[in-house]
Give the backbone structure.
Amino acid sequence: MAAARDAALGEAQRLGCTSTEFRVERIHSQHVRLRDGDLEGAADDTELGVGIRVVIDGGMGFAATVAAGADEAAELVVRAVDAARTIARAGGGRVELAPEPSHGSVTWSSPYTVDPVDVPLADKVALLADWSGRLLAADQVDHVTAHVLAVTEDTYYADLAGTEATQRRVRVHPVVEALALDADNGFETMRTVAPPAGRGWEYLQGDGWDWDGELASLPGLLGDKVRAPSVEAGQYDLVVDPTNLWLTIHESIGHATELDRALGYEAAYAGTSFATFDQLGVLQYGSPVMHVTGDRTTPNGLATVGIDQEGVPGQSFDLIRDGILTGYQLDRSIAAISGLGASNGCAFADSPLHVPIQRMANVCLQPADGEGPSTEDLIAGVDHGLYIIGDKSWSIDMQRYNFQFTGQRFFRIEHGRLVGQVRDVAYQATTTDFWGAMEAVGGRSTYVLGGAFNCGKGQPGQVAPVSHGCPSVLVRGVRILNTRNESGR
């Protein structure tokens, strides 16, 4: 490792590079899936490689290989320099990076007890089979799928500024979903709402989530859902649980506040953003109770790092304060283009063979200052509404403005009390109307860190893990659609 690093950085200095990042990564991923208690498939993948990015004469180039020797590392620099000069001649524009000082030697790891990829396959299958068996034993359940994805990501990073970092990111995502047939030859599903987490295998053994309690509740909830009436479309007050709200945050705030997107750099693939740069400090994104941060230091967060892949330390920063857009997510090139100062640490590549691009931090809606109000307190303030738990499908336009979301569980609220489930529900709004109608946020006791393993961005496409913490919230007067009627069924 040291020989390859020295060869790469030495060659970069000899050739006159103004910036060079050397990255060696080993990403070990495992996926195990069961259907009705039987193993349906298992995959075990290890990706190992070296990636080098350079800036020279105003051009940026990247090269990568699966070989990790000193000679190969020096050759990679030559290839990256050739790529930078070719891109510059092709009119790629002059590249500048916001300055970043040396941070010396950095060692960081996700907090975990048991590395999830070290757990034997037989033990993984046994746990998922046990969970599946509990549900299949219930009269309300006809089929069960259970799966877990585990990743351990080891990175060594060094750059010309003098930063050297070794870090390990560990994450797991377990899901169990029950299915029941209904009287109309259709079906309903109900899955666990436990979020993916930057934790070890101990998470599946009850450290951080009550699996026994949730699994015990699923058959009854699914049975009630199958018998529930279809929702009546109209205007409703909503109490949105964090297990649902995290995805609304991801799509309508997280992506909208990526500055490369707001400046138009993502237009060809996943759209731009209505929260354009000229609206910084002006846009009324939501109500005054809205405070949203970007955070690369969140405990157990999927996007939490010690240092990013441009040598910038993980940090926390404001995106929305008192409902006003006050910041964006930045990597070093976007920070330089925008004139906003230093990067806030949002560069990531999903493979050692891919170039780092600007990626999302853990974007989180902050709770009220105290332990309360509780979710029950928010529900008590609703005369006619819905309480929404768990994410399901979503749709949002290319500017992150018009959206529609569904969920796992929908409970009617009448006169401050839950009075049974309904189904076929979707809520629809524009981003600013929805967040502007948020009357109250729950306290710290309601806060949950949700998230996803597979946020997509870029061309060629990359995926990144990201978390979104939030409390329960009360939103007034949101349009509710009946999805069955909308589909013509």
Remarks:
- Residues 234-487 form one domain.
